[in-house]
């Protein structure tokens, strides 16, 4: 499954979200693309105030912070 992980440099919340992702049983089956929101003006305006945000490529569903392990499991199901 392709996941876009919108984040930023020195983002403590992004680090917490990465840790939650690594705890998921399907972590090794995920294709995660990390996107720094500051690299693109449009992306920054869409996600800059909400990072970290996960987005599934298959159905375009988004999961924004704050989320816990249960919400992440549901998002990945």
TrEMBL record:
InterPro entries: Glutaredoxin-like (IPR008554), Thioredoxin-like_sf (IPR036249). It comes from the Bacteria. Gene3D superfamilies: Glutaredoxin (3.40.30.10). This is Glutaredoxin family protein.
């Amino acid at each position: 499954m392709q996941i876009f992980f919108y984040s930023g440099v020195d983002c403590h919340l992004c680090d917490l979200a990465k840790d939650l992702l690594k705890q998921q049983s399907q972590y090794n089956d995920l294709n995660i693309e990390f996107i720094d929101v500051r690299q693109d003006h449009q992306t920054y305006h869409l996600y800059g105030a909400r990072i970290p945000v996960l987005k599934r490529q298959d159905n375009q569903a988004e999961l924004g912070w704050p989320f816990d392990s249960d919400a992440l499991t549901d998002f990945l199901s």
